[in-house]
From TrEMBL, chain A:
Protein name: FtsX-like permease family protein
Coiled-coil positions: none
Residue ranges constituting the ABC3 transporter permease C-terminal domain according to the UniProt record: 228-352, 671-790
UniProt keyword list: Cell membrane, Membrane, Transmembrane, Transmembrane helix
Top-level taxon of origin: Bacteria
Organism annotation: Kangsaoukella pontilimi
From TrEMBL, chain B:
Protein name per Swiss-Prot or TrEMBL: ATP-binding cassette domain-containing protein
Keyword set includes Iron: no
Biological source species: Kangsaoukella pontilimi
Residues annotated as domain ABC transporter: 3-215
Matches recorded under Pfam families: ABC_tran
Keyword list, A-Z: ATP-binding, Nucleotide-binding, Transport
CDD domains found in the cross-reference section: ABC_MJ0796_LolCDE_FtsE (cd03255)
Xref: InterPro entries: AAA+_ATPase (IPR003593), ABC_transporter-like_ATP-bd (IPR003439), ABC_transporter-like_CS (IPR017871), ABC_transpr_LolD-like (IPR015854), MacB-like_ATP-bd (IPR017911), P-loop_NTPase (IPR027417)
GO molecular function: ATP binding; ATP hydrolysis activity; transmembrane transporter activity
Cellular component terms per the entry's GO annotation: plasma membrane
Length: 801, 215
């Protein structure tokens, strides 16, 4: 008995193939965007995991020094005392194909099971190809490619952590120009008798290894951003599905009723409908997951570059996906279908055999629905504001964001109806008055598509405003921050001295840029030195400072901290600041430091050297006439022997920094465009599915003496006007969104706040774009209407409707 | 002559519905068209109303031939010369009663406030002007349709079983109004019905059978 019922149900789709395409397309797009984002997140997390387990399998404890690097002598002392430890050094190296994180290990003392050590034994030629002065670097094939052609031989090995290169410790130390190591990995099994750690190496602390969580925490906000976008796109896609399912059920209402009258139980009917939907969900889910794979593959290189540039997180630019991901993609498609179909299913379940066979006035303006939507909008708004006022952290920021968007979407039909009623108030020709009245009646039928458009447009305006504000602020800030014309790094301190000699008299100023790392207020931070120089006085992007901040720096007093550290710890000028090494200074200024995930402290240079004597004294900023940059660069290379790679002029550095930011927002930009495209599809499909239901409204007007051509033009104008009105309403929503992103989300996620700028010209473009998209979406239904045979319209008046 | 149909032929695919039909109608005249269900009455009315194209023959409305006209010309004739009443679904759902009645007259640029007020009054719609079609009963809807068909004082009124969906008492009342008001407006009325009783009220009667007309 189920089979004939299913056959009857499926007949509908054969007669309305377009509805089926709509349903599958909407569901596939929703699934695609969602699972694409999930794939990116999963890939990044897998990379973090592999990176964390690169040494010691992520299991073994480590010895670290709170004061920075560990001298090799300490390592030797520990070994002599019977401790089974293995040294590790880390740093960045520039390969011909880009920056790579280099990890130096000692394969012979590394804990058993260390992947790189096992790889070192397993490569062709055995461990002898790894150790010794001619030893090779090991990396995954993709990373090895970036190092190819460099000063060292490289071997590609599958299964290593992505983005990392491994070298024998002496080779790594040479490459990184270091004499000390960063940490010592403790073997899980130690001999029974050892001297206590406090005796052998009193300066060291035992610590849990860095785990994927540490990197994860740093990049969490980035992934949360992506997830939020994925969710938004998914929601927009579900609007389409909901529309298509609702219409299909409404049109089949007479058939459902007949089936019930013929003795099909309500349970069997619902079960059959569920089976039907399940088939659609699985088909669409498969298409969607495949599309999601393509989206993820297209976006991942940019994401990887962003994570590398912004957080130093090594992520492979290629996708490897697990079956779990495919399954979860299908599951989300099924769940989405269930969500979109639940009201329709409820209607089928409650259908009695005697229910009216006439399709309900599905697309009719309904005061009650609109009031309910307004009430729900108010509730969403209150939840949003509650989260905004009372909550803290990124999550409440996103609740604020989501609540505002939902409230705006729910209030849209009422707002549009109000605007259209206002427009229809003026008396015009009969046709014009009919146009406004009829457009108003169209709103409920199109409301889901228009809500999707509103969300997409608001997201576009909001994110666009954020990115543009970001870019403007950032470029201005870069100009201030990168005031020196040339940045140079000596290879050794001897070379640095030689360089300073040579530069004497050739520059306006040589500004040391020396730094070390340490733990400030419980989190890793960068500690820089600065001299009092007009370069800083004129340019440094201070947000807040004591009045005589530079005089005090000149006098060796106080410290500047970056905005993210100040916000995280609630620091203000005048507050005491405990520094690593057990001394305390005073915060004298706060400056903006966009793009830096770490806290940063700037000390007077003399203080830096005094407190941290082993700081590298290799980096300098040179103030010179910009026209002489090339001349100085050539001189430094020829006369001092500075490698060209160690000199970066201001323009190149700015370009690099901007590139990191462009890539960061390339992903959001791409998702933005995709969301807008989904909204466009939503409008098109709604218009097409509504086109048939429009005939009863249009036929009388046609019969009374308006040509089909005119009606088609009016229909086209209608969708353009609805899109334009939606766009006008999207502007304030988008601006509120931008404000939340800049003032709440960014502060929570990155630790800095950006000033908001407005870009009306961008809106104009977006407005034209959305009107054009709506026009394009309306074109096909309009053309179909213009070429409809009169008999289709006449049939409206006959019995057999 | 107000309406002239000359030797009209019309087929749907293989099936010939009208096989050489001629009729004429003058102002002030009422003509009832009867016939079995499916005999082609509506098709004939649609052809006379410039709604449906025909295969051969000619239709003249106020002396103007339809065969040479395009979409725009046909629309103009409908707008200016014809009042239409169908069995149901006559009204524009998004407009209220007042706007529905005035719509065609305003479209044709022939709004006559006094005449419209008189129609509304006579049709008993004064209390329903702000209502929308879906809020009206079937009889009320057909009265609005009559008001709309006559508001612009078109010379020709075409009605296709205007009471076919109403119960007898309501139908009779609507029919009384239709005859009375078309007479007042001076239009010619071509009405399709399958009820001999209603047909008897018209000045002339024609019967459609096997594609041809008989008295
Ligand atoms: N557009 C059309 N396409 C095909 N057949 C049609 C069309 N319109 C009407 N018919 C057929 O033409 C015949 C006459 O229809 P109609 O004029 O509506 O008859 P009546 O109004 O007398 O009941 C019927 O068999 C009907 O099915
Ligand atoms: Mg008929």
């Amino acid at each position: 008995m189920t089979w004939p019922v299913l056959q009857a149900l499926l007949g509908h789709w054969r007669r309305h193939p377009f509805q089926m395409v709509t349903l599958i397309l909407g569901l596939a797009l929703a699934t695609a965007l969602w699972s694409g984002v999930q794939a990116i997140n999963a890939e990044a997390r897998a990379s973090y995991d592999r990176a964390a387990s690169a040494i010691g399998g992520g299991q073994a404890d480590e010895l670290i020094s709170p004061d920075g690097p560990i001298p090799l002598a300490t390592y030797a002392a520990l070994r002599r005392a019977g401790w089974r430890v293995s040294p590790v050094v880390e740093g960045w190296v520039d390969g011909p194909g880009g920056r790579v994180r280099l990890i130096g290990i000692d394969p012979l003392s590394a804990p058993p099971g260390t992947p790189a050590a096992m790889a070192a034994v397993g490569i062709e030629g055995g461990i002898l190809s790894f150790i010794g002065p001619q030893g090779a670097l090991l990396a995954t094939p993709a990373t090895a490619e970036r190092l190819e052609g460099g000063s060292r031989p490289v071997r590609a090995v599958e299964g290593l952590a992505p983005g990392l290169a491994f070298a024998d410790l002496p080779n790594a130390l040479a490459l990184l120009d270091r004499q000390d190591v960063d940490r010592l990995v403790i073997h899980p099994d130690q001999p029974l008798r050892q001297s206590p750690l406090t005796e052998v190496a009193p300066g060291l602390e035992r610590a849990r290894p860095a785990t994927a969580d540490d990197l994860g925490r740093l990049t969490d906000s980035f992934h949360l951003n992506l997830t939020a976008f994925g969710l938004l796109s998914f929601a927009v896609g579900l609007f389409i599905v909901n529309g298509a399912v609702g219409l299909a059920f409404e049109q089949r209402r007479p058939m459902f009723r007949t089936l019930r009258a013929l003795g099909v139980s309500s349970g069997r009917l619902v079960a059959t409908v569920v089976a039907e939907l399940l088939v659609f969900a699985l088909v669409a889910g498969l298409i969607g997951v495949a599309l999601g794979y393509l989206i993820a593959a297209a976006l991942l290189p940019d994401v990887a570059a962003t994570l590398r540039g912004l957080y130093g997180a090594a992520v492979e630019g290629t996708l490897t996906l697990s079956p779990v991901w495919w399954l979860s993609g299908l599951a989300i498609a099924v769940a989405g279908t269930a969500l979109a179909a639940v009201t329709s299913l409820w209607g089928v379940a409650r259908l009695t055999p005697l229910a009216s066979a006439r399709p309900r006035a599905w697309a009719r303006a309904n005061r009650q629905t609109m009031l309910a939507q307004l009430a729900a909008a108010l509730l969403a708004l209150m939840i949003a504001l509650g989260a905004g006022v009372a909550g803290h952290g990124l999550l409440s920021g996103f609740i604020l964001l989501g609540g505002l968007l939902i409230a705006a979407a729910l209030a849209l039909p009422a707002a549009l109806t109000g605007l259209l009623a206002l427009a229809g108030r003026q008396r015009g020709t009969a046709l014009r008055e009919w146009f406004w009245a009829d457009t108003r009646q169209q709103v409920p039928g199109l409301s889901l598509a228009l809500m999707a458009l509103l969300l997409a447009l608001a997201a576009n305006i909001g994110v666009g405003t954020m990115v543009q504000s970001f870019r403007d602020t950032f470029t201005g800030w870069l100009d201030q921050r990168l005031a020196s014309e040339l940045y140079v790094t000596a290879e050794t301190e001897a070379q640095a001295a030689e360089m300073l000699d040579w530069l004497d008299g050739r520059t306006d100023a040589v500004l040391p840029i020396w730094d070390t790392e340490g733990e400030v207020l419980g989190a890793p931070a960068e500690i820089y030195g600065v001299v009092d120089h007009p370069t800083y006085r004129d340019n440094w992007p201070l947000l807040d400072a004591v009045p005589d901040v530079w005089d005090r720096i000149g006098a060796g007093q106080g410290a500047l901290v970056n905005e993210q550290l100040a916000r995280r710890e609630g620091l203000a000028p005048g507050d005491p600041l405990p520094m690593p090494g057990g001394w305390t200074t005073e915060v004298t200024g706060i400056y903006s430091d966009y793009g830096n995930p770490l806290g940063q402290v700037i000390l007077p240079n003399g203080v830096l050297i005094e407190r941290y004597p082993d700081v590298d004294r290799l980096n300098f900023g040179l103030r010179i006439d910009p026209a002489r940059v090339d001349e100085i660069t050539a001189g430094l290379e020829d006369e001092v022997g500075l490698p060209p790679d160690n000199m970066v002029d201001q323009a190149a550095l700015k370009a690099f920094s901007l590139d990191v930011f462009e890539r960061t927002f390339a992903v959001t930009g791409a998702l933005n465009v995709l969301t807008l495209a989904v909204a466009g599809v939503a409008i098109l499909t709604s218009l097409l599915t509504l086109a048939n239901m429009r005939l009863p409204q249009l036929a009388p007007v046609w019969a009374l003496g308006v040509t089909r051509d005119w009606l088609a033009r009016i229909e086209l104008l209608r969708s353009v006007i609805l899109a334009a009105l939606t766009f006008v309403l999207a502007i304030p929503v988008g601006l509120v969104l931008a404000w939340v992103l800049l003032a709440v989300i960014n502060v929570e996620a990155f630790g800095w706040r950006l000033p908001m700028h407005l870009y009306p010209l961008d809106w104009l473009w977006l407005g034209l774009l959305s009107a054009a998209a709506a026009g394009l979406a309306g074109l096909w239904p309009a053309r179909r209407l213009a070429s409809r045979p009169p008999s289709d319209l006449i049939r409206v008046f006959s019995n057999e409707r | 002559m107000l309406l002239d149909l000359k030797d009209i032929r019309k087929s749907f695919g293989e099936v010939t519905i009208l096989d050489g039909v001629s009729l004429s109608l003058d102002r002030g005249e009422t003509l009832a068209l009867t016939g079995d269900s499916g005999s082609g009455k509506s098709t004939l009315l649609h052809i006379a109303g410039a709604l449906e194209p025909f295969d051969t023959g000619e239709v003249l409305i106020n002396g103007k031939a339809l065969s040479g006209l395009g979409d725009a010309g046909r629309a103009e004739i409908r707008r200016d010369a014809i009042g239409l009443i169908f069995q149901q679904f006559n009204l524009i759902p998004s407009l209220d009663v007042a706007a529905n009645i005035a719509f065609q007259a305003r479209l044709a640029g022939r709004e006559d406030k006094d005449w419209t007020a008189k129609l509304i009054e006579r049709l008993g719609l004064s209390d329903h002007l702000g209502k929308y079609p879906e809020e009206l009963s079937g009889g009320q809807q057909q009265r609005v349709a009559i008001g709309r068909a006559l508001a612009g004082r078109p010379p020709l009124v075409l009605a296709d079983e205007p009471t076919g969906n109403l119960d007898e008492a309501t139908g009779d009342a609507v029919m009384d109004l239709l005859f009375e008001l078309t007479e007042t407006s001076g239009a010619g009325l071509l009405m399709v019905t399958h009820s001999p009783r209603l047909a008897a009220r018209a000045g002339r009667r024609l019967h459609l059978r096997h594609g041809t007309l008989t008295e």
